[in-house]
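Supplementary Note 3. Input sequence used for the single-chain structure prediction.
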Amino acid sequence: MKTTFPQLLLKHAAERPAAAALREKEYGIWQAHSWATLAALVEQVAAGLHLAGLRRGEHMVVIGSNRPRLYATMLAAQALGAIPVPLYQDAVAVECIFPLNNAEVRFAMVEDQEQVDKMLEIRDRCPALSNIYFDDPRGLRKYEEEGLDSMEALISAGQAYAQKNPQWFREEVAKAQPDDVAAMFFTSGTTGNPKGVVHTHSTLLDRASAGADFDKLGNTEEVLAYLPPAWIGQNIFSYAQWLACGYVVNCPESASTVSIDLKEVGPTYYFAPPRVFEGLLTSVTIRMEDAGLIKRKMFAACMDVARRVGPALMDGKPVAALDRIKYALGDLLVYGPLRNNLGFSRVRVAYTAGEAIGPDLFSFYRSIGINLKQLYGSTETAVFVCLQPDNQARADTVGVPIRGVEIKVADNGEILVKSAGLLKEYYKNPEATAEVLTTDGWYHTSDAGFLDAHGHLKIIDRVKDVGRIKGGTNDGAMFAPKYVENKLKFFPHIKEVVALGDGRDKVCVMINIDFDAVGNWAERRNLPYAGYTDLAQKPEVYELIKDCVEKVNADLANDTLLAGSQVSRFLVLHKELDADDGELTRTNKVRRGFIAEKYADLVTALYGGRSEQYIETQVKFEDGRTGSVSATLKISDTKTFTPVKSAA
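The predicted structure, written as discrete structure tokens, is reproduced below.
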């Protein structure tokens, strides 16, 4: 698609001026913004930024949740030839310092008082930052900081300029070329400083249109934009594909109303990482466990039919007439109401990505009639590399290469990708760019995997994380930590896992329980507890988690390649892993190396044969205060199984 984002905006505004482009929920009421209204708003914001001094090629930071006026700001910056840089709204102030200085940012558009306070807190360490604009004025009436102004004032100034210069905006938009830089996304960075991934209009729109063609997306789709705009997954679905297709993007009122807004919108096209689907299923499981006996029995009977018949029906495979009737009855009594309750009654295509999804979880959604599929991609590939065709969705693959993608596997098992959607570069980091981009255009994904006999891609782990067991009965066996972690996270009672074992004689894991799921489990057994730390160390909880670990071990014993990765010992952590404490990235990926260092005493205890270990950890609260959490953690041994030999 050889065009630019602002040019697509003007195209939609000309062809469908009255059609809804964005909807925003305020005070419980949905407000629609038409393409014509949006185009006028973008023109006014662009004019205001032009008057304020934003210039072509400059970077402009945008921080906040999904809001129409923040989307308009990104389009306005692009119309001027400037480069929007979305940052995570839940990042603490100090995390913004490097991106702001690295990109020499003078202009920032933020959502509200919380984000303004962050910018003011670090302003003395970001010498270039001169102009800060805010969308929501609540709480900011008495702020008298130099260079701080409201978006209303910016729009007002821009409106006057646009009226005096009616051709100016279109002339600015026409100057942009498809190969101009369109946006920069900072990777969350599991080690060191984040890297600025530079994308052009062409790279982002090429992948957006390829994904849209694959699933036959059009302007009638409805999308709920509830994940951080700084994450390229959300940005592609609610910005790049939105402008490529012209569908409607709905912005929820707040993070706390997403589940309600999901039901009200009834999206046709939906995207979420596995943890969101896990959370939804956990809530369903909890509700059913609290339901009456008749409801529980009806649900169990209908789900037995769904598990046996649903995936085959979803894949268009032949199903016996009697089973079709049973499934139709189940759809009337259980699956239909359940889809409606989840907000998925109109979903035509649903995707998950970012981490592996459990087979049972994947099968559950497909069995109740939700077309859940997996995709593979990254910030550097503009997301869309592999997608699953409608009738070929499987839990153990991430799909087939889509239009314009070539894949090859290096001798060390690393997946290499070539497509028109690859990053232009890492900003101001030619060494890192040279490490991932070959001279002949191949991108090193750092993922280990292979293409199966059906042309589907299978991911094992990160290349750097695939290690070997050294010593003991499994000496030399392959160790894939992410594979082990994901298999354990498939259980609803386990939220997060850190697996250790490379260069050691056995595999040990540190586990976070899912507080809601385990709390509900404890309450139904009249097991009292006083918060997460207390619940995590209950002997009954350890037995529950031990059972999960041993089931995974039994499963791993059947895998000749990874049987040596069975877990020998585990502990349940005294606190939830948190991005604010540096233990997770902002996209909720485990920073395994950092955690192993931070909890070195626990690692020593796991491998030293100890049965318990005292730990005290500093934590950071949402309001910026710090405190500490301490506990004596139990360490449990688990049963491992003799590997099953494959038949000759």
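The first strand starts at residue 20 and ends at 26. Residues 273-345+360-370 form one domain.
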